[in-house]
Records
---
Amino acid sequence: MGDFASFIAALQEQLPQTAVLLDSATLQRYAVDEMQPRAVIVPSSTDETAQVVALAHQYQVSLLPRGGGTHLGLGGVPKSLDAVIELTRLSRLLEHEAADLTCQAEAGITLAALQRQLATRGQRLALDPPHAEQATIGGILATNASGPRRLRYGTARDLVIGLRTIQADGEIARSGGRVVKNVAGYDLNKLYIGSLGTLAIIVEANFKLHPLPAAERTLLLTFPAVTDAMRLVSAVLGSVLTPTAIELLDGSAARAIATRTGLSLPANGYTLAFDFEGSLSAIHRQMDETRLLARQHGALMGEDLQGAEQEAFWEAVRAQTSGELTCKATMLITSIAAYLQFAEQLCRRLNLEMAAVAHAGSGIVYLELHPAEVSSELLEALRLLRQQAQEGKGSLVIERAPTALKRQIDVWGPVGSDFPLMQRIKQRFDPGGIFVKGRFVGGL
């Protein structure tokens, strides 16, 4: 335990312009897995952030970086929590080089705010995780959050070309570059992305961008059986078609999305949603070819979405992957159908409710389970769902769960053979344990 009182005194003396919140109501709002911080610190610049971290290092006070808070449910229960350092005041778009299709932004800007500014010059960042109005760039990178568009554009690790970070001793460091061709040396960007702020605090990021598409349309198809739906997915992926996203919804997920959007979606069977972008002529050609393949695989034709209905649909799909108890299973695309059949039978046997959404072209399945309260049936279901994913050379992470459940089960699952290397990296980057432990794999 560090000298917290001296840390706060030094902070208020040396950085009087930095907001330090100590009232109980605020601390309760910033609790992580029912653990309240002793202070919330809100710097307004990179230099201030670095000075806060340097003082935390000096007084051995633990810090947890926070953006909009949309992904704080990811990870295990913290071992201790002295202070939350919130980065939402670092919210500027610093540079936008439209000719180079790159930009540089501070970590506290929300994804939606960044997209609005980029759109004024006909460009966008091709990341689409849930809750874009609240999720900050720093939080998205720290959790490696993504969405349906990852099929075509990849994830944050594919779009980040440079980062500016605060190390555990308060030093400001850079990795990568500001344009794609300048990136050389060790790719530390990929190390920081997805590390939950356990190695460093991301304060700025450089991205490669994409032009806004001329048009976008969504094709909805329905299948009585998941096996037929996934056979169509394999056929499309093996063709010359280039969908931006392919999402698979079971009946429960379709009902929830229909309720949220007012759209008419089938409550039984499985729905496949294909998103296409580009010129209208190219979109129509791809949709016609997809329909032809779909008929060969027993599909029932559904609606074509565009405009506000399309936007509402995809927003609801993304939101469906962040329920009270949500598991993320990764596997081979060819294993998705059998895995969903196993999950349905298991939940039926254990009297649990399930809603499933899959990034069907990327091998990722999100399962939302109810009820989320700890029970022997729920623990058994999670154990068997993880075991089934592992037997198919995949994995299962519990991305969101009540704190009581997190205390009963490891949300990350068993560590792999590379865990000793991960421990050495943590020791090298944060030897004093300044960045909160307990949330990442193996308690790192």
Note: The radius of gyration is 22 Å.
---
Amino acid sequence: MGRKPDPSKPHSGGAASPRAARRAQPSPVFLGTALFVLGFVSLFTGHIVTDADWSRIRSRWRSKQVRNYEPINIWKSRYSNQYYGCSWRSTNFRSAVPENSSTGYLLIATSGGLNQQRIGITDAVVVSRILNATLVVPELDHHSFWKDDSDFSDIFDVDWFISYLSKDVTIVKSIPYEVMMSMDKLPWTMRAPRKSMPDFYIDEVLPILMRRRALQLTKFDYRLTNELDEELQKLRCRVNFHALRFTNSIQTLGEKLVQKLRVMTSRYVAVHLRFEPDMLAFSGCYYGGGEKERKELGEVRKRWDTLPQDLSAEDERSRGKCPLTPQEIGLMLRALGFSNGTYLYVASGEIYGGEETLQPLRDLFPNFYTKEMLAGDDLEPFLPFSSRLAAIDFIVSDESDVFVTNNNGNMAKVLSGRSLFHANLSFISVNL
């Protein structure tokens, strides 16, 4: 039997005694201090890294903010040089069909004011091309709100119109007398649906045209779709931007007004202010004139049989259908950065409310001019003709440095297209 080990003597081998083991363990105070130091260092270094990362992010953000808030040239679009006109005829675009080989004579009765009729004339040329028809110079609207009895040749250079488009469409001033006498019946009259596709004209219009030899399309505005092939779109551009040239008397007076403005200032803003009674009545909006305004504009609105008579003015404004007032246009221009020293040319007809309505805009921009102010007695021969007056406004607006409108009407559409085509006009589109 062996002896029990003597606890008073150290053990020469095997595991250490519990007391020795306890002496070998680190002190809790030491461990706590070490962990605290390590944690503090980690936190400190992590904080430094986080600050460095945040500093880099903040630096990048600030640089982006600086780029986003670079001074904007309110007189010229930075993207204007990225646009160019493309109206040239392709080599594979066949020549116009001669009059004696065409499918018949297409007569067009346009509708609306000058610029609405301009759009109709443009589409009339394209429809004639689609039908291989001979186009008779379009008839302008003499019965609309404006009551202007001007003919095509009173506003546009008709000989230039026919000559410029001679390779695309055959155009005549009237149906030849011998052809009219040989017809069994008068030209057929019909109205195409709005934004009709080319197939409609080929399937529905062409058979009647070939059978009757002459056909008239009435109220021809926006009667052709925008979904056309590239060559027909180019033809639209040739008509709108080249073939439709104003008569010499209109063009001369328009350029004279531009020259007068250029003598006073190197640049000016043209404002197309559609605030006439017909425009406000058509919109169905209310401008705070009380029962008098509601009654007057309500009577004007009755002239359009197809318009609802019970529109909510509040709903129309919330939908963005209300033209801006002269004061709202002025405040918008000032907010954009145009100073009160800016020269304004205001293109408009009879403003509802007269000078009282215009005064807030005059106060914001004292250098305020209209065709009446600039032309003086030279304007007198044009006064009975609203479309000729509108043509003068068109010329001065087209030559401006910045064009802005209080509505999204036809003149705004035509001039915005011209600003893109010629890349020489800064156009401010109002998001109503």
Note: The beta strands are 105-108, 134-136, 171-172, 188-190, 214-217, 269-272, 344-347, 368-369, 402-405, 426-428.
